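Minutes, project huddle
Topic: does the predicted pose make sense with adenosine-5'-diphosphate bound?
PN asked that the exact inputs be recorded in the minutes so nobody has to dig through chat later. Recorded below.
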Amino acid sequence: MEVLVMKFGGTSVADAERIQRAARRAIKAKQEGKQVVMIVSAMGKTTDHLLSLASEVSDNRPRREMDMLLTTGEQVSISLMAMAIHAAGHEAISLTGGQIGLITDAVHMKARIQKINEDRIRQELDSGKIVIVAGFQGIDESGEITTLGRGASDTTAVAIAAVLGAKCCEIYTDVEGIYTTDPRIVPEAKKIEQISYDEMLDMASLGAGVMHSRAIEFGKKYNVDIHVRSSFTDTQGTWITQESKQMENIVVTGVTLKKEMAQFVLEGVPNQSGIAAKIFSEVAKAKIIVDDIIQTFDDAGHANCSFTVDHSELAECKLVVEILRKKLSIRKVVCQENVAKVSVVGIGMRSHTGVAHTMFTALAKAEVNINAITTSEIKISCIIDPDHGQKAVQAVHAAFELEK
Ligand code: ADP
Ligand code: ASP
Ligand code: MG
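Predicted holo structure (tokens), as shared on screen:
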């Protein structure tokens, strides 16, 4: 029997009526002869509310307790979903990450999935139930509850689709698919019919919050097609799939904006072999996820090394950098607490020229100053002032005529 994995995000289960609507979709798929697994997020803005409640009671929140708190959001929505399905006359069971044996490492609030035991899900599916799994959570080897990072219910869904050998994972959300940029920034943005894993992986890690980037990694690795679509309509959404020849004809597929980033600049680092290794081994030991790294050197035998991190890593990273400054006799450390990154992504860049020129000209015309540039084969990113983020995206999106 075909297994279908359907993931419903926060807005898609924000109230009782939406939970019932999602329940009806799952029941319909079951009636069409599929075995259905639903992955459900916390209702509406529940996770945000829990985070702000925690900051009201403490300035120094133990990450273990944060995970205890945050996982309650999904436990509410899965149990309500199961009740809605029962009320409609069908069998269903809700299960937490721990109950399905979703095992992660022990890094609270940004744990990574290590394995998923499919037995419990299979057993429930085989007994005819719709299985409802809590998104974004698991347990570590010692049984401690963990979460996988904001937005990671997508990752739970695609990982479960992979272990169950499902060909497709449906992601139901509040937009009709993946757009050429965030439609909240550019209302004329166009829905993309099909996008490759690599492009979507870059778009997600460069700020397109519509999908969690690790979900795309799972999709690519285990060849699960991901269908991102609206929970409010029946229209086709966007398919995230293997690359196809015709995708290369499109030069730029999407534009993204990543905010809430900080940039550390380490000036006057001794320009010796092994220094970069020392810096980034300390950063890695603290489990800090580093974004772009740029290193340059000057005539006086010194190097300047800069890197960006997410705001959530800022406090921890400041401590690590201060230790490094003393240990490695770094002349000066500058931390820019607020930077943003605008990027263009497209596999067509491999075979087309002039993308950088078009992007930089658009930013210049919009009077957006570029503080740093990084590139890969399929993307160009510019670090800019966050106050210019919106107009930068609008200018670049228009320059590549992505609305057409
Ligand atoms: P969910 O709660 O369903 O997981 P998210 O809020 O995580 O939903 O993701 C959907 C939102 O992502 C949309 O409302 C949209 O504003 C935003 N978004 C950002 N970039 C894009 C993009 N390129 N295409 C579509 N949506 C995007
Ligand atoms: N509820 C979690 C969050 O808001 C996980 C998710 O929705 O994907 O980040
Ligand atoms: Mg999401």
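Observations noted during the meeting:
- The two ends are 41 Å apart (CA to CA).
- The chain has a mean pLDDT of 96.
No decisions taken; revisit at the next huddle.
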